[in-house]
Amino acid sequence: MEDNGTRHHISSFFLVGIPGLQDRHCWIGIPVLLLFALTLLGNSTIIATVKLESSLHQPMYFFLCMLAMNDMVLTFCTAPKMLGIFWFNDHRIGFNICLAQMYFIHTLCIIESALLVAMAFDRFVAICIPLHYTTILTTSMVIKMGLVGVSRAILMVLPCPLLIKRLPYYTNYIINHAYCEHMAVVKLANANTLINRAYGISVALSVMILDLGLIAASYIKILQAVFRLSSQNARSKALGTCAAHVCTILVSYTPALFSFLTHRIGKKVPPSVHIIFASLYLLVPPTVNPLVYGIKTKQIRDRVVGLFFPNKKISEP
């Protein structure tokens, strides 16, 4: 048996795709392509609509544009490689490219979570202290909140690939996943990975607990303010402005929590189920978010109808 001095560090990984469903990869690729196309179309439409419609030049929609751009980049980091695996048997991925994909995926997911917190704060200010909305959520404040969310994600995820780079990878190179996920890569190392596992779990838990806690606190205050309103119409209108954001939160966090829990404590969950949910977590929210906001926000809905059907009469507010 070779000693460590004669072993060669692997130069690439082999992404399996969906374990146990390899014979159906060509069919699985169809919805992946559809989600990819809808993500690009939907989010670019949202960005164009907000840019063209002056009435949407508000903090809430600036955050929505940030979310749309983040979603498109996230999809670009995952969908093309998935399609390569499913349709062209392009399973190989370079070691450093794999680490780069892992880094960008996890960074963008944390940025998305920060943007959802920012959007919850926006709704809190708009409903609970509306008279101070324009003085609190200025353009500079929106930019600062965006930069804080990006900086937090970059700094929190940066140690993950750096810690992996110090690990020896000699024999195990098959990743039972459709993309380079942190724990899936760590498990292949020929060394003790306690530090990597502990750091990965601490990052995931801290982001989920902090961000979900802030979102929950915002909505508790919002509900308290709404139910103090005397008019039923005013209550419905106030809650209606939050509906799209709540839908986005549910779509984003539900598969994320399932994927996180099954990866660590769901030993009896079939690998194929876990990988499918982990993939849906990256592909479905970017597709659904623009649809939700397009349906729930009248200004966006009317502007989009005007863009695609210029002769159609837009409903009066």
Automatic annotation (TrEMBL):
The chain crosses the membrane at residues 27-49, 61-88, 100-121, 142-164, 198-217, 238-261, 273-293. Residues 42-293 form the G-protein coupled receptors family 1 profile domain. It comes from the Eukaryota. The keyword Translocase does not apply. Gene3D superfamilies: Rhodopsin 7-helix transmembrane proteins. GO terms for molecular function: G protein-coupled receptor activity; olfactory receptor activity. Its main location: membrane. Keywords: Cell membrane, G-protein coupled receptor, Membrane, Olfaction, Receptor, Sensory transduction, Transducer, Transmembrane, Transmembrane helix. One of its GO terms (cellular component) is plasma membrane. It is a multi-pass membrane protein. SUPFAM superfamilies: Family A G protein-coupled receptor-like. InterPro entries: GPCR_Rhodpsn (IPR000276), GPCR_Rhodpsn_7TM (IPR017452), Olfact_rcpt (IPR000725), OR51/52/56-like (IPR050402). It is found in: Cell membrane; Membrane. Odorant receptor. Belongs to the G-protein coupled receptor 1 family. PANTHER family: OLFACTORY RECEPTOR (PTHR26450:SF59), OLFACTORY RECEPTOR 56B1-RELATED (PTHR26450). This is Olfactory receptor. It comes from Sciurus carolinensis (Eastern gray squirrel).
